[in-house]
DUF2062 domain-containing protein
Amino acid sequence: MIYPRGGWRRAGTYVLHRLRRLPDHPHRIGRGVAAGVFVSFTPLFGLHFLSAAGCAWIIGGNLLAALLATFIGNPITFPFIAMLAVSIGRYILGLKGDLSPHRILGEFGHAGAEIGHNIRSIFGPERAHWGQLAEFFTQIYWPYVVGGVISGLVASVAAHYLTVPVIRAYHRRRTKIMAERIARVGNMQPRPPAPPSDSPSAPGSSDKGRGTQ
């Protein structure tokens, strides 16, 4: 679930290969990549695919490119993304103190467990507790949203302008290779034999016939 079967390098190469081979306009692919990168900086865990597809649809990007670009958010990069987003958000909101990536991700785990407990309390004897969730929302989640939107916008714009020339160059190279392949196949095809000189279809044969009559 965490480590790809073929390794992270092979998984990243596969994603880049699929992006380059998408049959769409480079700017649409770039907008799709921008949508996927932007969503990866938000704390919408479990909804990244749907959010990326929605953002790509709104800005007219390629949906598959958006889904592939969410690969930016993975178990290796999430601690760094969370640290950057929460730090920016807390600074903008004027909150004191820095939080480590371990504590940020740990608080997300505790919040998920607390939500599950409160849902079970509706159908059982347990008592719901919302105090910890309120503090989590104020100290971590809302700063993550604010910082994630800002850093995600910057990263998505950069991803778009880096993606478009790469896709455009790949399409030009692929078109050139296909044209060379078609020309090579055409040169390999046998040419029809030339008609004999005494054939009626040979040039000048009709004039020669009229001259001898």
Observations:
- The helical segments are 8-20, 26-40, 48-59, 63-69, 78-93, 101-123, 131-188, 205-212.
- The chain has one domain: 8-172.
- Residues 8-172 form one domain.
- The radius of gyration is 31 Å.
